[in-house]
Design brief:
Glutaredoxin, 4-stranded mixed sheet, Glutathione S-transferase Yfyf (Class Pi), Chain A, domain 2, alpha+beta, 216 residues, single chain, 10 helices
């Protein structure tokens, strides 16, 4: 398998950490997100959406990060990160879809305003954060309730659902995600951050020093 990615992006971090959790090996094809490599014709031939990441395995060309996680788990036969039980798999699928359709956007507003804007020498727009805050809190309340009394989302161990849902908040401190009212989420993300696969996929070492300085 060959993975096209830039480790600094949300969905690439998700896939790198998830494939590590699964134990799926792959060949690196590193691209530069800020350099616009994902918009070049040669990558558009792999993913016409011009979005990272993408996976190529023989004649299979796969995009959408959560699809890559499911494929990696199926290919390796990992039944810990992706259990065989139909109900557990349905639960995992539910969270993968929720993350991609709702949670990603809710967290991404904070990433853009508090991380991307400063990197691009722009000021965070508090009006935008205020506008989208209620939607974020609505979704965070759902996740908070789901984590009540449990360490992981879908099983007694971390699964690809935990990696997927954690990914949009992977820089939660500098994103300034408003998590004060969500102790279950805070405890859960701390457990995710303790996983070797999460630590191994830390994007910070891949962010140029001059960009990191703008977030200080």
């Amino acid at each position: 398998m060959k993975l096209y990615y830039d480790p600094i992006t949300v969905n690439c971090r998700k896939v790198v950490a998830g494939l590590d959790l699964i134990g799926a090996g792959y060949e690196d094809e590193l691209l530069s997100y800020f350099g616009g490599d994902h918009k070049k014709p040669e990558f558009r031939a792999v993913n016409p959406n011009a979005e990272l990441p993408a996976l190529v395995d023989g004649d299979l060309v796969l995009w959408e990060s959560n699809a890559i996680l499911v494929y990696g788990a199926e290919k390796t036969g990992n039944r810990t990160a992706y259990p065989a039980d139909a109900k557990t798999r349905a639960d995992i699928t539910r969270w993968l879809l929720w993350e991609s359709s709702k949670w990603f956007a809710g967290c991404y507003v904070y990433l853009v305003q508090n991380v991307v804007n400063p990197i691009l020498d722009s000021t965070p727009d508090q009006a935008v954060l205020d506008e989208h805050g209620p939607a974020f809190h609505g979704m965070a309340s759902i996740l908070e309730a789901a984590l009540e009394g449990r360490e992981w989302l879908c099983a007694d161990n971390p699964t690809i659902a935990d990696i997927a849902v954690a990914a949009p908040m992977h820089l939660h401190a500098v994103q300034k995600l408003p998590l004060d009212d969500y102790p279950n989420i805070r405890g859960w993300i701390a457990r995710v951050e303790g996983l070797p696969c999460w630590q191994n996929s830390d994007p910070v070492p891949h962010i140029p020093a001059e960009l990191l300085a703008k977030l200080a």
